[in-house]
Specification:
This protein has one domain. It is 34% helix and 20% strand. The model has no long low-confidence stretch (mean pLDDT 90).
């Protein structure tokens, strides 16, 4: 994920991801100004498009892998 610079950014994305149907928890390894790692925990498969939409709705973008 790109564009995050602080804990507030990480909390905003975590909250958005945890609102996705099926997601139990989300955590972010914050790298201010760099590419951050995101871990999503769910009880079933969560469509990638749902994760992408939640991140983008929070104002950030997923980095190309």
């Amino acid at each position: 994920m790109e564009g995050m610079t602080c804990g507030h950014c990480a909390r905003a994305v975590t909250t958005a991801l945890e609102a996705v149907d099926g997601v139990h928890a989300a955590s972010i390894e914050l790298v201010p100004g760099g590419v951050c790692a995101v871990t999503v925990t769910s009880d079933r498969p969560v469509p990638f498009d749902s994760v992408r939409a939640a991140v983008e709705d929070a104002g950030y973008s997923l980095a190309p892998s």
